[in-house]
Specification:
Strand content of chain A: under 5%
Helix content of chain A: over 70%
Largest sheet of chain A: none
Distance between the termini of chain A: 37 Å
Number of helices of chain A: 6
Oligomer: homodimer
Shape of chain A: elongated
Amino acid sequence: MYIDGTIRAYVDDASAGVPTPGGGSIAALAGALGMSMACMSANFTVGKKKFKDVEREVRGHLDACLKARDELLRLMDEDTQAYAGVSAAYGMPRETSEQKSARRAAIQKALVVAMDAPLRAVRMCRESLRVLSGLADVANPNLISDVGVAAVLAEAALRAAKLNVEINLKFLKDEELVAATRSEIEEAAREAAENARSTLETVVAAIGGTM
Amino acid sequence: MYIDGTIRAYVDDASAGVPTPGGGSIAALAGALGMSMACMSANFTVGKKKFKDVEREVRGHLDACLKARDELLRLMDEDTQAYAGVSAAYGMPRETSEQKSARRAAIQKALVVAMDAPLRAVRMCRESLRVLSGLADVANPNLISDVGVAAVLAEAALRAAKLNVEINLKFLKDEELVAATRSEIEEAAREAAENARSTLETVVAAIGGTM
């Protein structure tokens, strides 16, 4: 489990000429990093007299951000495990026509499994950006740039995870599943971009920055 | 040094109600994660007969990506150290007018120091996106989605680091430095967005995805 390993070990393995950790795992971790900034800004808001009017609301956001962060950290590790199935399927014998057909079926099955972690990362980041858009309005203004960092990274994580769904879709033959998944991730990307933009507009207005 | 600590410890500290690791550190790590995907795709390209025509070019990109990755990992840790100076300056006594003026000067000095790590992260990501735009044209096509992940994360890291420069600029009084820095980071963001877009266009065309 990479979560209990060092940052150096993870980054070294990710950089090497071996398949895992790959883009799906990296995307999930980037999303978790973003959500940790959302948690920090919420943690600097809850329990402070100055923000007691929004205490309940921020606590709700904090719970949601912590759950998203932890789910994304799980997906970071899950993605590396799922990929092993794809490699194994591609490695199956293909001499007889029975072997060829068994291999083809195993590859299709493994691709669906491999797509699962990045697809769940897309969903988690989409959901997270809804939360962030609410958090930006109530978080401690001293920490507002961190809500912005969260929004930038959650959207980027979604887009990176989407690329990892798409690379699997390219080889999937189940047209119905391909169409439904494409439609879902494209809609997720659109919604996420909108929420990220509105969150960032709030942030840059507060810090006098630019989009 | 967080680089030799676990991912869990870093994310937990980042999420907590303490100032560090903050957005500048997180941004640098997100950039390093992106560049690790660029290294992976280059490592799956160099030394292979099939890609021997671009061997020298990809080796050059690989060196640049490794250097960027390692510099961003250093900035992840440096940013947490620089922030301590800002906290210390704000904590200085402010009873007499001498104390007030010493405190003000110390804060201004600390802000310039605190801005340094995210500003260098902005520069590193800008430079990295130039490299990625070249890498996308020559990397092993099987790893092209990982070049896309690298571009998405490098641009997001730049934007996140930029927010952390801007939050310091907000309190800086040296107007000349403020203007020069704003101009640099806005130009960096524009150039990075262009390079990220062109890299992603190459990637999505190859995998049949959408922007």
